[in-house]
Amino acid sequence: MSAKVNSKTTLYEGRIFKLLRENVTLNNGVTVDLDIIHHPGASAMVPMSGNDTVILIKQYRHAVGDFIWEIPAGTLDPNETPLECARRELIEETGFSANTWQKLGEITPVPGYSNERIHMFLAADLVPARQDLDKDEVLDVHEVPLDEAVQMIHEGAIQDSKTISGLFMATHRLREKELRGFAPIGMLE
Q1: Helix 161-180 to helix 146-154 angle, to the nearest 10 degrees?
Q2: Taking 60 as the threshold, does the pLDDT of residue 174 lie above it?
Q3: Cβ contacts of residue 152 below 8 Å, gap of 6+?
Q4: Strand pairing class (118-128; 42-47)
């Protein structure tokens, strides 16, 4: 089942996303105008430093007017695979690269008004690299015990949806690893 798109109007086109107004007829016969953010997608990763420590960033986000705790992430460049994006963003934001990668899944953070999908990865076997922040990135890199990071979610210190999803997905995958063994993926896609 899908809605019939009757028309599309671009309201705004920015550096990263487009805001469209779509006139659609829904499956129930109702016709409405919907404002939708079209986003190229992103990758996020849970970088594990050792068996029980995660690399988090505390980044200034002007939209919320404060620094927030996050896992590293970034927007897909044109013709870039999600894994290529994850590899690039890990180095740029944290100053680490990873030798072992495993796809955790995908999330759709705000499906009520955006088509953005975030590809989630577990990154392990970290090695130092040269951090290369974008000019608009203001952040600090922190190593946090994974159990403490999960506790930060429960206490409300971590509120970012991709970070919450990523940490829970990684925790689940790492528990599976203890039971069945870890199958690293050197290159996906």
Answers
A1: 140
A2: yes
A3: 69, 144, 158
A4: parallel
